[in-house]
Amino acid sequence: MEMRQLLQVMEVYKTHSISKAAQNLYISQPTLTVSIRQLEEELGEQLFVRSRRGTETTPFGRRFVQYIAPVCSQFSALDAAIADLRRRSSKELMISVPPVDICCRAYASVLKKHCGGALDARLRECFAGTAITDVEQGHSEIAVVAVVSAEMPLFSHLLRLKGLEYSGFLCTPPAISVSPSHPLAQRSSVTAGDLQGYTQMIYSDNAGDSLFEDALHIGGKIDKIYVNSRAGLAELMQETGAFGVTALRLGRPGTEDPDTRIIPLTGTGIEVHIGWVRRSGRTLGQLAEEYIACLRALLDVDEPEETP
């Protein structure tokens, strides 16, 4: 009696068809028929009979299936566990992140440590909607996301539908980013009223698809420019006097971009949730765990945010 024969019996039992079971098991029908017959000869009992309704189990066959079902289930779980162990031991780091420098710094830190050891890595810069699709479809192991508080209920519902789970780093008020020469660069804080007459620069992979900038709904005389080139973003902000919207806590003091000033934006009643997404119940690989630890250190957070 072999494990493959027990799995074959279970498949025939589920499908009520030798041909369908053979198709699901990727073997020929004659091969499956011979294998089942050999098992029946070994047991000294018939497991299946043909009827007008298909292939049915005999009374002995039904009792046999009850005994082997837990064994087959454990064997399937073992296959999944082995695949997970292989993934965890491999040097693979596939993640999706928002267009924030600190996410790239954490990624570079992990790559620097592991380069030269058959590393397989992919970094995709995108927004929350695209990022969670990446995780759902297996293109990325994890996705770092930033979502405004008002969108969090819908975001959480979407994750549940897709079989994903969210772990939060922190919840922080928004801020604006401006060039050092901007008239507001030396302010300790700004309000939406202070931004009237300036241009809002929005980095977006698709026009209107930004994570949380539009959710601020800054009214009045504010022009909006959507760009999908991070390389030209700083130059455009410098030349146009535009501002961007970002999360206030982007890292430890002294790690900020010298070409950018971060100024708290007050009075909006909005907070930004920053965290990461993975498939529910999935154990992270070694490099993904290291990335999360590194990003947590750069964000200067010790305890995870309570999941909404």
What would your notes on this structure say?
It is a single chain. By secondary structure, this protein is of the alpha/beta class. The protein folds into three domains: 3-88, Arc Repressor Mutant, subunit A, CATH 1.10.10.10; 90-172 and 272-299, Periplasmic binding protein-like II (D-Maltodextrin-Binding Protein, domain 2, 3-Layer(aba) Sandwich); 174-264, D-Maltodextrin-Binding Protein, domain 2, CATH 3.40.190. Helices cover 40% and strands 22% of the residues. It contains nine helices and twelve strands. The chain has helices spanning 3-15, 18-25, 29-43, 59-89, 101-114, 128-136, 152-162, 233-240, 286-299, and strands at 48-51, 54-57, 92-97, 120-125, 142-148, 164-172, 174-178, 199-203, 223-227, 244-247, 261-264, 272-279. The strands form four sheets. It has a five-stranded mixed beta sheet, with helices on both faces. Helix 5 links the parallel strand 3 and strand 4. Helix 1 (3-15) packs across helix 2 (18-25), helix 1 packs across helix 4 (59-89) and helix 2 (18-25) crosses helix 3. The two termini are 51 Å apart. Residues 207-214 have low confidence and may be disordered.
How far apart are the termini? 51 Å
What name goes with the CATH superfamily of the largest domain?
A: Periplasmic binding protein-like II
Helix content: 25-40%
Low-confidence segments, given as residue ranges, are 207-214
Condensed summary:
This protein has 308 residues and is of the alpha/beta class. The protein contains nine helices and twelve strands.
